[in-house]
User: What shape does this take?
Amino acid sequence: MSTNNIPGSFKYRIKAGDTMYNLAQKYNVSLNNMLAMNPSIDSDNLKIGQTINMPLNNPVATANIKGGPLRPQITGTVNFFDVPDGTWVCADISGLPPYRPAVGSANPIGPHGFHVHEFGNCQTGDPGDPFQTAGGHWNPTNQPHGNHAGDFPVLFSNQGRASMCFFTSAFKPEQVIGKAVIIHQNPDDYRTQPAGNAGKRLACGVIQRFNG
Ligand SMILES: [Cu+2]
Assistant: This one.
C-alpha cells in the first residue's frame, strides 16, 4: 500500500490526565516518534490546552479502489485514520479520466463526486451503469445530501491523479468498515437530492479493516 503521500502528523490538544505514554498507547504510535516530533515539549509536564504533534500510524480502515467498465484504469487507496474527534481520510487515486468541460446540457467530467455508499458490495452489475449494488450514500442520521456522513469533497485530479487528505467529524473509521467508497464521473453539486447529480460510478472499493 502506498502511504507516501500522507501527511505525517496531526495536532492534538492536551486534556486533563493525558500523558505521552497514554497518548502513544491510545493512538497506537511510537513514544519515541512522539518525543522526536515535539522537541520543545517537556514530556513529563504536559499542560492542559497545549498542542502537540502526533505521528500518524497505520490507518484503521482502508479501501482498495478499482475502476469499473467505464474507467478500468482507475486504481488507488482511501485510508481512514483515527484522530481526535473524528477521522483523517487520505485518498490517492490514479487513472482518472481527463477533465472535460461541460458541453450543453452534459455535465463536466471531473472533479469527481466522491462518497461513502451504504453497502460494501462492488459487483459490477450493469456495465453501462455499474456498482449499483453499493446502494445510495451512507446517511445514518437521515440528512439532506450535502450533509450526509458519507459526503466527501470532490476528487480533483491532474493527469489522472488525485491525492488529498481531509478531516471529518461525521464518523470514526470503525463505522465505515463494510461500506464502499464510490468515485463518480461528474462533480457533486452538493444540493441535488439525493446524490448531488454526480453521474455514473467509475470506481468502487469496499472499506475493510486495515491489517498490514
Ligand atoms: Cu456516490
Q: What stands out?
A: The first helix runs from residue 20 to 26.
